[in-house]
Amino acid sequence: MSEVTKQKILVGGEWIDSNSERFEEITDPTTNDVIAHVPLCGEDEINKVIQVAKEAFPAWRDTPVAKRAAYFFKLQQILIREQENIAEIISKEHGKVFSDAMGSIRRGIDIVEFAAGMPTLLQGQTIENISKDIDCNTYRQPLGVCAAITPFNFPAMVPMWFAPIAIAAGNTFVLKPSEKTSLSTLKIAECFQEAGLPDGVFNVVTGDKEAVDALLHNYDVKAISFVGSTPVGKYIYEEGSKNGKRVQALTGAKNHMVVMPDADLEQAVSALIGSVFGSAGERCMAISVCVAVGDVSDKLIPKLVERAKSLKVGPGTEKSMEMGPLVTKEHLNRVVSYIGKGIEEGASLILDGRDLRVEGYPNGNWLGPTIFDYVTPQMTIYREEIFGPVLCVLRVDTLQDAIDLINNHRFGNGTAIFTDSGKAARDFRTNVNVGMIGLNVPIPVPMAYFSFTGWKDSFFGTLHAHGKDGVLFYTEQKIVTSKWFGSQESSSLKMSI
Quick one: which of 363, 370, 361 has its CA closest to 311? Predict the structure, then answer.
């Protein structure tokens, strides 16, 4: 193994070699060439990192909140300076096209900016004379060591959903990124380090299930944030909760976009194409189901197919591309197997991306835009999250049919409706059982100041990611009720000049 490609981990303010003898290969998805090796840290090593974070906690907790926040003003500027470099790394290791990568980094920077406002976000409440001579105050205090387990598809943005808020609130942090796309996360860690955070406040380890279990089972980890698949998220929620930890687990999705007969078709088609095939469909907020209401399908579907056929698919590092490869050969095979399942179960494959070839890149993980029509709720491709550039089209008669369809699905992450009718939009907003809703907005991801609010099997926990929920998740509320006693003399002392 070449020393050049052997990645280090960030522990106690230093980049060190892991003592693990197990490594994961990171490959370029356009060629499947190995571009790096990252260590898979074991339980003993993870426990030592947690101990480092634990020892750093008291001094960081006692650092004035304004001083803690100041680090994030500096971090924001560093990330702005480095954003193109980070985006290039994301495109290289994940395959995401450069514009998608840049957009995700900017969303992460928004969270850093939000965290810099922590002095205001931590303000408590006070009531004087809540009873005779009794005052009541609330305070928010940090938990201790917090951790995050982040996914392959947003290796820069998602870590910034969690770490800045937790750290600015006074916690120390251990981050475990996906072993498939760790390079951009490690670059983010360099930016954190450059911002000057004290040693041990922010630590990054790489690993697989053994590392995850070490975080789940170590008593000193007080809270865990997770983004990934539903089975893994449910395991982390149950195991973490069993061990007395706070857990927020953002999991799978099957996001529907309803297109009404009165919708602006050009806008709807453009929105669908971007939301379905952006990031090659590898995002939990991708629209993977189009619900065509009434006779809109006759005009909508031909336009969809025509536009999807024209997408430029190629290496994400080439800035003219609109869609890149899937992240690994294994994941490509998984998505292709779903396409086969859709055909087998009777859906109409009206655009098949399996035969896509990209000149000069014969070994890439290529899959072109794929569209199924006449999908039914019983089909596997409708019930399960595919996580690739595959769109399922379902036809219904009425808006109420569309709402019932969405409400009956086990996932409740995001949904959207395209319509010119205020009444239809209001009925949809009120009656659909989904956490994030777009009205003529295809990917309703909340800005930093609001929380990412998936419902049903798309989220396990109580407090959601970032926004005010994020601050509440990483802090504990303390309520102090006070009454003071003293002599008349001591209470009427006069100042001497």
Answer: 370
